[in-house]
Amino acid sequence: MTTSLSRVPLGSAAGSTWTVRATTGPVPPELERLFSEPSPATVPGEVHTDLLAAGLIDDPFDGANEHLLAWIGRTGWSYRTSFDWDPDGREVQELVTDGLDTAATITLNGTELGRTCNQHRAYRFDVTAVLVAGTNDLVIEFAAPVDTANRLSDEAEGGRRPGTNVHPYNAIRKMASNFGWDWGPDVATVGIWQPIALESWSGARLAAVRPLAHGDGLLETHVDLAWSPTAELEQTVAVTVGDTSAEATVAPGTESVVLRNTVPNVDRWWPRGYGDQPLYDVEVALGGSGSANWQGRVGFRTVELELAPDEHGSPFELSVNGRKIYIRGANWIPDDAFVTRLDRKTYERSIRDAIDAGMNMLRVWGGGIYESKDFYDICDELGVLVWQDFLFACAAYSEEEPLRGEVEAEARQAVTRLSRHASLAIWNGNNENIWGYVEWSWQVPLAGRTWGEGYYLDLLPKIVAELDPRTPYSAGSPFSYSNFIHPNDERFGTMHIWDVWNQVDYSAYRNYRPRFVSEFGFQGPPAWSTLTSVVHDEPLDPYGEQMLVHQKAHEGNLKLERGLGDHLPRWSNIDDWHWSTQLNQARAVAYGIEHFRGLFPLNTGSMVWQLNDNWPVISWAAVDGHGIRKPLWYALRRVYADRLITVQPGPVGPVIALHNDSDELWSTRLTMRRRSTGTDVLATEEVDITVGARGATSVVLPSSVATSLDEAGEYVEVLTTDGHSAYWYFAEDTTLRLLPPDQAFTANVKATDSGYEVTVEAHALVKDLALFPDRLDPAARVDSSLITLSAGDSHTFRVSNAVAPNGPLDVPVLRSVNDLVN
Q: Domain named Glycoside hydrolase family 2 immunoglobulin-like beta-sandwich: which ranges (predicted)?
């Protein structure tokens, strides 16, 4: 019997007709027909998106609908389809489900195939004895996810374990943020969220393929095999990569085989900014049958993590192909609360947001999902390193069955699927759970029960060592790599900085000397058009009912207000609230990164919380839920640039700090001026300076420039001959003497083929100038923001996807600090 495999997709795109109906739960009276009248469904998909497409519910993101639709997560749902099947001579038939969300019972032709309770893994069911020639009926019933989580939590030994959410998401292997987070909506959903198919095969099939590419051109391809019950013939497994091939013959029943190819003169894969991203096609063929082949791509690279103690503590230093990488990154959450709406186009747009901001790493956070193939493929292609959390976040987790078995199966599948990706740079055991156990008062309620430590320090590192030994593993974030050191100690490993935002002013960033910051951030509202598309309070107010629906952080808008500190005045209207809090978010994060980069090489990188949003919300994101780049994003583009110049406080006065994170020598002339906030240049000094490749240096600001005679009316600008700039102020904006906009600058609008340009000419200091074209057209996008101009300078904003407005632009479309303080 030769190898032969046929895969028939059962998704909507393949022509299968699916329906969904309610089975249990608090369905509103006006929708009780859902118990008896199925509604059309899309597979892959989710019940919320199915009900929305059918016109049965309003947009869950709009207004206060999130609360009004909470019944969906307390309801059981049944998905059904029928398909035709004719025997084709193949010996084995299997139903393959790549992802079921989450507690599901699968029935075919009235026979229960099995029950699942893990969104993060695939399942395979033998249906050889259940299929019938002709029409077959498939039903997948999902238990209510909120009720299931509550039940599993209550049934666990000792009851609920500590967590950070009203729902016990830690009791069920389901996307944690689906139950709500301090930036995300509570839209606990169900559905067949990944492809589902019928596979028929004989002889043998590829059960798993795990090609591991090494930096020297060696490809080790681990192949797992499954055999049909009557298989008697040996099979040939062949691997081709580049111009090389390797082949092995295996006897029936052989469970696994490793084939080795060596690609001569291999081109190595590099992170962006360090080299190119060559990818090699790999094909694994079983028995010479094209239907049994596997295809993918790999990049040849090495990744190492340096943690050895030094005189300062211990670093967290990532190297690729032997070269140290300074990390400029962000944390990544699911890009939509309804993840089945995402596709390659949406992923590429969001990853481009990271690249355009100068980033080289994204951290897939542990409260989300193991991301789609598109995500990792794009990161491979564009050179974005991936830090991959295992899916544990901000909670204690049981280490007993049945959860332990699900965790192990899920982790093995995830490592097997993702290990081939060149961009994958680190596996991480959890988000904040070790920190939580030490510091968040978990130990008393746990009373000696398991909380996940065995996963992070034993099970997961063993799985990574077995299945992906080329890629480093970290037990957690934050973590100090010692059981005897606080997990969030700045001197060791990784740290999270959250007293800033929650408790103290952002100037406190300078109190830290972290080796690596894997989480820190500050909130700000989304674009005006994004906010007002879902918040309809009359009048619009920071503490309005619907506004607070779209602010999930505890006392979030109060923290926004408190966070202005002495930096900016309290707003007098909603437009000023929006502008000042967006500006303050950008400044706070930039302030932190400038400080961290100024610590190089002690500090080896930072990852801001967070790049993206999963709905329209006030949050820490740099890009909002409608894909509009907030002022924070433009600040990140500046401070994450290859070359950064800042002015920092030093022991004897201000210091100009330069960080050159590029492979080229940086030779430039610094022009340092103390100026009035009007038109006068009060002192000037110049100096030539050279910064080595991947290096840093500093220059003390000369006293003639650093010493002010009028703190409220003077400032320092530092310019390089290649276009970089930095500023130093002797006073906060609340006391800085700035001219009002009508005296400080003029702005002119000119139509272009793709939109329009706004050119601003400064007659005095114009601080943090920003244009918000979405105020006029939600589709409009602008190329720059937060521009500071001295008298005589000019800047042109370029707006796309919009028609030029008639007449001059003013508040609230064109903003600056000047209009906030006047």
A: 217-301
